[in-house]
């Protein structure tokens, strides 16, 4: 089997998700990109909670890394000139969420991952409702 096929066959679900995410981001406007980041963040946090319950430290580490990277990306994408106080509030939220995720990564309690995912899900729902027409 060619080398590329071997890599793809190793984890078809991951390969599909990567291809799907790439396809969605290539045609997405800024609002949709934030929506995708929220969706990916919630999924990563859910997987981190699942992995914590099952003591699957490899998956937990991968998902914590992904969640942390997404929180950095969300914060980096804020426009403080146009966003003013709202951008500052989001930056504070993203930093606090990131700290909670890092702190939870050290322990064996899945609850902090679920709490952060719930908070982000609430924000994501409001963000989706604000979709420009």
TrEMBL record:
<dbReference type="InterPro" id="IPR003713">
    <property type="entry name" value="FliS"/>
</dbReference>
<dbReference type="GO" id="GO:0044780">
    <property type="term" value="P:bacterial-type flagellum assembly"/>
</dbReference>
<protein>
    <recommendedName>
        <fullName>Flagellar secretion chaperone FliS</fullName>
    </recommendedName>
</protein>
<keyword id="KW-0966">Cell projection</keyword>
<keyword id="KW-0963">Cytoplasm</keyword>
<keyword id="KW-1005">Bacterial flagellum biogenesis</keyword>
<keyword id="KW-0143">Chaperone</keyword>
<keyword id="KW-0969">Cilium</keyword>
<dbReference type="GO" id="GO:0005829">
    <property type="term" value="C:cytosol"/>
</dbReference>
<comment type="similarity">
    <text>Belongs to the FliS family.</text>
</comment>
<dbReference type="InterPro" id="IPR036584">
    <property type="entry name" value="FliS_sf"/>
</dbReference>
<dbReference type="GO" id="GO:0071973">
    <property type="term" value="P:bacterial-type flagellum-dependent cell motility"/>
</dbReference>
<keyword id="KW-0282">Flagellum</keyword>
<dbReference type="Pfam" id="PF02561">
    <property type="entry name" value="FliS"/>
</dbReference>
């Amino acid at each position: 089997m060619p080398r590329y096929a071997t890599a793809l066959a190793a984890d078809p679900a991951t390969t599909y998700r990567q291809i799907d995410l790439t396809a969605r981001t290539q045609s997405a406007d800024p609002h949709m990109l934030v929506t995708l980041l929220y969706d990916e963040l919630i999924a990563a946090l859910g997987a981190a909670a699942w992995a914590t319950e099952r003591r699957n430290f490899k998956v937990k580490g991968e998902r914590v890394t992904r969640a942390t990277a997404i929180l950095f990306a969300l914060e980096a994408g804020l426009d403080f000139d146009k966003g003013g106080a709202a951008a500052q509030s989001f930056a504070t939220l993203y930093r606090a969420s990131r700290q909670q995720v890092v702190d939870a990564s050290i322990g064996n309690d899945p609850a902090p991952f679920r709490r952060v995912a719930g908070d982000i899900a609430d924000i994501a729902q409001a963000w989706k409702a604000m979709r420009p027409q």
